[in-house]
Amino acid sequence: MRVLYFCYCPEEKYLGDVQKLDYYSTCVGAIVQSREFIQGLKNHGVDVEVCCLIPYKYGESPSRFVRFEALDNQYSYLSYWNLPVFQEISRFMSAYRIIRKWVKDSRGENDAILVALNNYLPVSMAVNLAKKKAVSLTYTQDMTDDLYSDSVLAHMNPFKRMLVKPYIKITKILAEKYDGFIYVSGKMAEKMNALHKKPDMVLEGICESVDRIQTGKDKKNAVMYAGSLHKKYGIEKILDTFSRINRQDVELWICGKGEMEDKVRDFSERDNRIKYFGFCSHDEVIELEQQARLLINLRDPKEEYTKYCFPGKMFDYMLSGTPVYTTRVEGIGEDYYQHLYYADTYSADEMSKDICFLLDKEQSELDSFGKSARGFVLQKASGANQVRRFIEFVKGMLQR
Q: Among 181, 272, 303, 323, which residue has the least CB neighbours within 10 Å?
């Protein structure tokens, strides 16, 4: 089997440059999972070629024309002019050329193109125009409407905001032309399958290799959140909940960046128990997660988007061996909740009591619960298991 995989994951040489970009904080989880996915495909004998997009914002790139030279002949990069409008057009042309060359080199019909860029319009258009007999799939990790929510539109310039509606409409039309779909939650699959009526599978994500994350760190009496600091992800609720804990023996650790950074800093200045570490590297986050006694994720279950996404941080959280306390959202499969502590309400008062109750448990009990969660996610979401499921899904499509 041959797979052409579009993603954000660059070669190691360019990772340092990518980590400096504004978009990196929102894509670090996707990059880590793509790295595991690519290695998993290779381990299963799949001939995989990776096409990476490194999306500089306008004015962020060192030159107008963005071009990266691949070190591995199984890697390529979308090249483009970093100018309004021309950026999208040139990315389409680059993707089209890469796909046509890949199709031309085909030795048979056992080929699949997988796009893990959330139905990104220029790539979707190129795939559907150039794929020939290859099976095309899109790995949708966020609903298109959620990617262009009101909070996102508020930060766009008026000209770009004016183009969003037709852009979304064309994106949805092209998405329907894919041959198959991969979703991160059962609810997303349920909703989208009613529209597409095409083969689909649920693949929440992939956890890291076990040898990269070692347990057994010394613990500190801290609750920790790591991720994007956006209001929709519940960071304000976390701050409100923690402020109701009237104990000086516990700290709240926060890592990440986003629109709520100033509010986090304000809380940390007023409450010395709150430690804001800023945006940390992936390895630094893992280190802190293993030192904390409890990891936290408090998204509002009433928010519609929580049905259609799986919080990528859950893989690192559970893999750390530190217990996780979360709200119960529909985007997370039922089998996960056997290995998570979860809230029955979205009340800050009630959740603060839950946190105190959990922190009063013996460390040995917390360790045992965290170890169980780690074992579960290693079995369910390992690269070997998820890639095997993907290959079986694609083979089923190819045999139709």
A: 272
